[in-house]
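Box 3.1 A note on notation
Throughout this textbook, protein chains are presented in two layers. The first layer is the amino acid sequence; the second is a token string describing backbone geometry. Keep the layers aligned when reading.
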Amino acid sequence: MIKVTLTKARETKNTFRYEADKDDAAIQVLYIEKAAFNGKASPDKITVTVE
């Protein structure tokens, strides 16, 4: 199982870019479309779990 915490780094026109807190994380960058949040505020930190 992989568990990574990512912090919001920046916002593009249609996405939010999240970057890993650690340099050796299995997932370094993750883009999430703004539409996924249905117009609500996006979180500053997210945790991704891969099973």
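The radius of gyration is 11 Å. The first strand starts at residue 2 and ends at 11.
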